## 1
Amino acid sequence: MFLASWIPGGPLPALVAGVASHLALDAIPHGDAGIGHWVHSSPNHVTKLQRLLPVVFADQILGGGVFLLLLSSPRLASTGFWILLAGAFGSILPDYITGIRDLLPKPPVWLESLHRIHQKCHYSGKEPFTILTGLIFQAVLVVTFLLLAFF
């Protein structure tokens, strides 16, 4: 949403900036590799969904809450709602593409290609965080940006 407020041109550039920021931030280790491994090591599709859906639900609730908080930020007040929404949606779009791919028994080739691009952007070294320390790291970053948005 911060990028969306700085990029001129309306919702489409904001969406692209959101996608680009997601892919760039995926290159920084942030502790979710263990969650991804746990989900993708499922023995079957049903177990995978049972593991994936609660994580997605919690992620969406928290993301929606941050989005609503940022809508009331004085730093973003001069940016239109649709531009902010486009930036926010762009920032989660790569994960939605991967999620849709994971739900399909046989994803189309173009969806597999988009997923591979997303996967190549992820940090590929030794993960320095456990799931818990990664969640703490992400929470500290979110709180920091919320503080920057309001003060």
## 2
Amino acid sequence: MTSIFEITDWAHVASFFVWTLAVCALAKAIFGSFPAAELQYHLALRDNPRRQRINRLNWEVANRTKWDEDVARGSQHAAKQPLTDPEIGSRRIELQQLARSSLAWRAFTYFMGCFACQAFWTALAVYVFTHGMSDLSACLLTAAAYSGAAVPLLNRVGGVPSATRAPSKPGCKNCNT
């Protein structure tokens, strides 16, 4: 792998480009594989009860009402059960504790789902494998450079979905006028 500090001529630029393609391929192979998807699925299943509790506590604090599916859906036949100020306070404290304890996990799942981060971790592993950990700053900066080059390259090829929407039609949904 070509370090960014080694680039002095066009041969090194070409080598950097080839290694960027390799990083893209490895990141797609590792993070887009079936075992990776299964791992993410099982980790999400494990985290679902905590996320559900956070969502319900957040709803209760915002609406000052005890959680009930029918009340949350806005059913006219459901009776709201208002919460007292001490109950709201205890729920707010529990919500803050759950949010604080899950911050690292939420950050980890976000950064493992981001292609730029996947490319960074892949480039970091390849750099350590090819060069070793002798220079930490060169390792981190080179991995960041490969990650930064991988995203537009893969986006240009069409591998990373972009956040574009279909153009909306003016007028009514039902009659299209």
